[in-house]
Amino acid sequence: MINKHTKSKQRVADHGEVFTAEREVNAMLDLVKQETERIESRFLEPACGNGNFLAEILRRKLVVVRTRYGKHADDYERYAVLAITSIYGVDILRDNVDECRERMFAIFDTEYTMNCKKHANDECREAVRHILRHNILCGDALTMKDINGEPIVFAEWSMLSGDLLKRRDFRLDQMLDGQKPQLTIFMTGWQYDEEIQAFIPLPIREFPPTHYRMVQQYE
Fold first, then answer.
1. Tally of domains within the chain
2. What torsion do the CA atoms of 63, 172, 31, 67 make, to the nearest 10 degrees?
3. Which of 13, 54, 144, 212 suits 39 as a labelling partner, its CA being 20 to 30 A distant?
């Protein structure tokens, strides 16, 4: 690396790749401090690089999980997984995506192992890796297409009663279209969400509720 903010001059020239310093990351996240401390609050970083913002968001969420649920391994595990499900990123460079996923997993695994000790298990770890594969994607957030030229598709994860996790897949371009004023209520494939007062697309795929440790059975 030529310095801590860049990997190479060529990458800066080709992709405008410059990493945000830790001080600036924390200052910006402090502006939305309450949201970073809500375990279920969702974040999307459209040019995530190797995860400077996402890693700090995860750290903050896991502090809340430890404070609230650290005395009970089952509860800690469940809410730590929920924290992972809420964080999304896109980057145009494959090595950044791979590095970001590994970085996020390492943060999770360190905290998970330390808090759950003998109760920590590989099923949960593999589930987290699976979630990260669907949440941290290689693509271009400007065109909203992945590296294969297909629409970027994110998984929405919702914790149901008990230990069940519900996955629904949505196209990013359709989700963003839902934030624009709509001219007609007769919209095939859309539904109106009263809570956010906006049209949202119907999912392109849905999966049955599954124990959060077993979500990897559905690719």
1. 1
2. -10
3. 144
